[in-house]
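Apologies for my clumsy wording, but can you show me some protein sequence, whichever is easiest, together with the matching structure tokens, please?
=====
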Amino acid sequence: MVIFSITAISWIQFSVVRSARGKTYQDVDRIAGKHIGLVFGCDDRFQDRENLYFTYRMEATAALWKAGKLHCVIVSGDNRSVQYNEPKKMRRALIERGVPSDKIVCDYAGLRTLDSVIRAKTIFGVQRCLMISQLFQNERAICIAQAHGMEAIGFNAKDVSGSGGRKTRWREFAARLMMWLDLHILHTLPKHGGPLESLPVSLISMHRFF
């Protein structure tokens, strides 16, 4: 039983990596065409310090925009209260980095990676997407997207090293197990639905993604 459990857990971890193999990039120049970007949220501060996960994601998104790789950007995160609003902080940070305000769309119900990815399809009508986060989250997001009939690639923001990075990788191990249960056993859907919302991109230009 123990051997079976270890084998199953290892297979789940490997399957996430396999799903995203050849679909994530670190070099802006390797991103072909223009895309709808989906940026995953986190707070800009952690324990009264700059959250480098946030900073690196914003820098990666700005670099993609300046290189002409994005039609528009969905910033998706948690807005659990008036005081805690990840999309608002991401939008402000991207504007400060030169991304036009009218090309940034906020998804305030991206409570989890799964919610953000599925809502990109069901709320914003996205069928093809460029995920923007660190590699570990991009791999999981691509796996979720594929399970829901979406085409996705990822642009990897710089990762975080040190103790904070190690803790995140341990959490990611558990997150991938939960993701597999959500997709294949529980068939979990986003906590919040809503009407279809438009994006600042024409249907004609959306045909030239990948």
The CA atoms of residues 50 and 194 lie 33 Å apart. The longest strand covers residues 70-76.
